[in-house]
Design goal:
Helices cover 29% and strands 26% of the residues. By secondary structure, the protein is α+β, with helices and mostly antiparallel strands. The strands form two sheets. Strands 3-8-4-5-6-7 form a six-stranded antiparallel sheet, sandwiched between helices. Strands 1-2 form a two-stranded antiparallel ribbon.
């Protein structure tokens, strides 16, 4: 397998944009996380969840859907999957996916990211990371909260990736991988298309 470039972007607050930028860097594309952030529409607004938790995001620009929108606007086609059911989990398929491409995972529940000593002690804090490889027992990932090449065992990753406490999720075990450039891509066109949404 040909070596892929590994670029690390950190910054906890824009983990979805940083993880997406790292995914695109793996195919040789340099797209600023700041541009991805704007194109996701995530930072445009705020709302309160039914249990009273303030969420600084617009309801129309949730991170998982925003990543899909930004990739489309930028002219990339990526394989995206999520499961309606929490079981069975896709951990056995993840190593094969990682042989072909890094895999953007999220939303994850940060409470279960055990390599991070500053993780929240409560459920429901969302996060996105880029999985890079697997040794069968552990997954190696870039976590934009400041953890390049972090290792996590399968069980805590499964608990985080299930995202049970993430209220906005559009399925369990969401991934984005295997991105390709669509022939009609252009940045000015992406900017025009984003304004039309």
């Amino acid at each position: 397998m040909q070596a892929r470039p590994e670029i690390f972007h950190d910054g906890y607050w824009y983990c979805y944009a940083n993880s997406t930028a790292m995914l695109l860097a793996s195919i040789g594309e340099t797209i600023s996380p700041r541009l991805i952030e704007v194109l996701t529409g995530v930072s445009l607004g705020a709302f309160q969840t039914p249990d009273g938790l303030p969420f600084f995001s617009g309801r129309c620009g949730l991170p998982d859907k925003g990543i899909s929108a930004a990739l489309d606007l930028l002219g990339f086609a990526c394989e995206e999957q999520a499961s309606d059911q929490a079981e069975p989990d896709p951990l056995d398929r993840l190593p094969a996916l990682l042989e072909a491409s890094p895999v953007l995972l999220g939303p994850l529940d940060m409470q279960h990211l055990v390599y991070n000593p500053m993780r929240p002690p409560f459920p429901g804090a969302d996060h996105f990371v880029l999985a890079l490889g697997s040794d069968g027992e552990r997954i190696r990932l870039h976590d934009p909260a400041g953890f390049a090449h972090a290792l996590i065992a399968r069980e805590p990753l499964k608990a985080a990736w299930r995202a049970d406490a993430i209220q906005y999720k559009s399925g369990h075990y969401r991934i984005s991988a295997l991105c390709i450039v669509r022939p009609s891509r252009s940045r000015p066109r992406a900017a025009r298309r984003s304004m039309a949404r």
